[in-house]
Please model this.
Amino acid sequence: MRAWQISTFGIDSLEFAERSGREPGPGEVQIKIRAVSFNYRDLMMVKGLYNPKMKLPRIPCSDGAGEVTSVGEGVTAWKPGDRVAGIFMQNWADGPPTPAKTKGALGGDIDGVLAESVVLNEAGLVAMPAHLSFDEAATLPCAAVTAWNALAAAGLKPGATVLVQGTGGVSIFAIQFARLMGMRVLGISSSDEKLEHARTLGLRAGLNYRQTPEWDRWVLDQTGGEGADLVVEVGGVGTLPRSLGALRMGGVIAQIGVLSGPGGSNPGEQLPLPIILHKQARIRGIYVGSRSDFEEMNSCIALAALKPIVECSSWHQVRDVLKKMESGSHFGKLAVTLDE
Model:
């Protein structure tokens, strides 16, 4: 089979290679991959910033969707022709996370899905929502589940205010889910055009943070001085102080991303402990979620006929897609579809 693999770090070093495939063993399922989407984690992985000690070669990418082609002995959950997506962490079926459950992340701990065919455990799959195409379903395993759990972590009611940062995959899904739940969504971006696009998805008000760097004050103005109930935090240490400033007392910061510093470490930044104490803020780390979370989210997506926002390219253009992600010029999700 053909696959993209990391043999040495760097986007231009990503290799399109022939790999030996295998038949599914007991309890395993073989899937023909039809589409793969990209997360910032994948970009960091390819560049060697996520885990410089990762064993190479490694097939990248956690998020893919496709068709079951064959099943191993004892498999009862799936049959050939089923349309499925892999879960991000292959060992996390349900319940709270544990060290054992959070091992086996696709495209990191084990080979990912940027290949013509993959073999996964039958418990590491979910059924695609029936109304979605393969490229749309491929956007769900990481970004959508992360956004879903960010909202769940805050336990909000309709009418609550959510602040999102930027217009990448997690933020756009957070807008869409929050709108379905009856919440008010505020957003910041470096692009007025992207903010206008986000308004069509449910963004109530937006601010260009390059024109108005003190966006935390803007959030307070928008909420009558109270602040947001939830901040979906994708920046990291570089944006956390303003996120805390924008938060209401007792509010929740769903800490997801590390966009403002590789690996989330920036020695020049200090954790703003005084404001955390003053705001009585709850900071919740969100690292995707379980298969059960994925299935619950898919039920909501199916009921609402929600459509992910995705821009597709050919899988021969993987390097170009990663460079586009690196530039930050995309809106929503980036994906590739595999040639027949």
About this structure: Residues 260-268 have pLDDT under 50 and may be disordered. Residues 140-154 form the longest helix (15 residues). The first strand starts at residue 2 and ends at 5.
